[in-house]
Specification:
The chain has 308 residues and is α/β, with parallel strands linked by helices. The protein is 39% helix and 20% strand. It contains 11 helices and 12 strands. The strands form 2 sheets. A 7-stranded mixed β-sheet has the order 1-2-3-4-5-6-7.
Length: 308
């Protein structure tokens, strides 16, 4: 599915990668320029056929993609970057994430311990990016791509190698902007291990609030024209998560118990916000709650227990 959202005189074109056969879970954003197009994100290797189909529907092929701007290197955002590099694209990434694109071995080994036999089905192949195709960006460093000017903002909290990108009046918020699906006013926080950090996320939120944009586009999922509401909802979600951790984690309960409690709480929160049952599976595909449980436990042990 391809969506088109007009952005002043240019357009943002949203390609739905139909991850796991679900609509509205992972987006890739296409920005046309006179010599082809740039992408924000590329999705996992498992969705390359859907990416090709979306590009074709818009009149492009992979060889027309000159540049790919990754918000971070998690597999659902960056898995197809090596393949796109092999088609001629230049891959832009945070300096902390760059070594893992050149040699994804450690990244894949870590993911393999989590996902086991599901790795191939979920994520497909993750090819390395050749050094001559890799562009390492710095915080606030504007990049011009055939008239498209993008500015990366260092925004840790979800991951310590995370950029949000400003383009004209739009903020591509990756995962630091939370997970929000189309047609519903509900936002969840993706908090995977090992780098979820509440204090850093709050600082990133403060940084986003200082920027001038009137469109926000999280990778999960879509383009929204209410960034004031969105950022306020993100702040509320951070407050709610902190309160939940303070109520449930000090006694150091086992993972299974914490996970059961958190899944119930997350489900009740979604229901209270009017999320229809058919969207719960999409939220879980875009942001598995059990991953957030692991991320919260690691954060608590590393940052709260040691400080007590």
């Amino acid at each position: 599915m391809v969506q088109i959202f007009q952005n002043r005189e240019k357009s943002i074109q949203t390609i739905d990668l139909n991850f796991l056969g679900l609509t509205g879970a992972i987006a890739v954003y296409l920005l046309p320029h006179p010599y082809g197009a740039a992408l924000i994100e590329c999705g996992p290797g498992s969705t390359i056929p859907a990416l090709q189909s979306g590009l074709n529907e818009l009149g492009y092929s992979a060889s027309n993609i000159s540049d790919v701007f990754l918000t971070h290197i998690h597999l659902d955002h960056a898995g197809a970057s090596g393949w796109l590099a092999s088609q001629g694209a230049r891959i832009h990434v945070h300096p902390v994430g760059a070594p893992h694109l050149l040699d994804p071995g450690k990244l894949l080994a870590s993911a393999g311990r989590i996902y086991g036999d599901s790795m191939e089905t979920l994520w497909g192949e993750f090819l390395p990016v050749p050094p001559d195709r890799l562009s390492v960006l710095e915080d606030g460093q504007s990049v011009d791509v055939h008239g498209l000017e993008l500015c990366p903002l260092d925004t840790p909290g979800h991951a310590n190698h995370h950029f949000a990108y400003l383009y004209e009046n739009t903020c591509f918020s990756g995962d630091v902007g939370g997970v929000r699906l189309q047609g519903i006013h509900h936002l969840r926080l993706p908090m995977p291990p090992p780098e979820f950090n509440l204090e850093e996320w709050r600082a990133s939120l403060a940084k986003l609030k200082q920027q001038d944009f009137d469109i926000i586009a999280p990778t999960h999922f879509g383009v929204f024209d209410d960034p004031t509401w969105h950022l306020a909802a993100l702040e509320r979600a951070l407050d709610e998560i902190e309160a939940w951790m303070e109520a449930n984690l000090p006694s150091n309960p086992p993972f299974d118990l914490v996970n059961e409690e958190f899944l119930a709480w997350a489900g009740q929160r979604s229901q209270a916000n009017g999320v229809p049952a058919q969207l719960i599976d999409v939220y879980e595909a875009a942001n598995p709650s059990w991953m957030s449980t692991r991320g919260m436990q690691r954060y608590w042990q590393k940052h709260r227990v040691k400080q007590a």
